[in-house]
């Protein structure tokens, strides 16, 4: 399976390589992550590794979230145990604040195992998935880079409008995909093939070249790239 971790965006800075060249990097707190569940083809219909990152305060965690990582005494669990049903193993950790799955065979991983940034020690490039900053409802000039209307010759109070978007009597409709005003940002973005510049195992930090989608403090999903 592709190597992957969950983390949080710390911010951007710059480092210098051996030749003194400046490299712009994004600092990510990658892990530690606990393996919460292992999906199997026989039980779930697909293979995946479910991992969690961060710690959610217990006062904010529901009973279902606490029961997902630790065994709680309940009527249902006692009934299943009495019927001879083998219960799934638990990670025995605090409820995580961010949970995602990595598709593929689990390999040698076990439930409760702690994954750290040292996984990327031999990895050269990664893909990072994050949610971009939400800009709210934006016009076509801000959202798509339109130049707007002219400021002369009868153009009045519509200088930042998109202009005509429809057609004539035929086909008498607006084609799908027409660039218009609307919600900008707040979408899942994948930054592909970012070079790993440095791995700091002592502080669980991963430095990658370039920008990463999302605000500072935003959750990200880091996995080994499949681009050769």
Characterise this structure.
The protein is mostly beta strands and 228 residues long. It has three domains: 1-32 and 117-134 and 185-228, Translation factors (Elongation Factor Tu (Ef-tu), domain 3, Beta Barrel); 33-115, Double Stranded RNA Binding Domain (2-Layer Sandwich); 139-181, no CATH class. It has helices spanning 41-44, 63-69, 75-82, 140-144; strands spanning 4-16, 22-30, 33-39, 48-53, 98-103, 114-115, 125-131, 136-138, 182-184, 188-200, 205-209, 219-224. The strands form three sheets. Strands 1-2-11-10-7-12 form a six-stranded antiparallel barrel. A four-stranded antiparallel beta sheet has the order 5-4-3-6. The longest helix has 8 residues, at 75-82. The two termini are 16 Å apart. The mean pLDDT is 89.
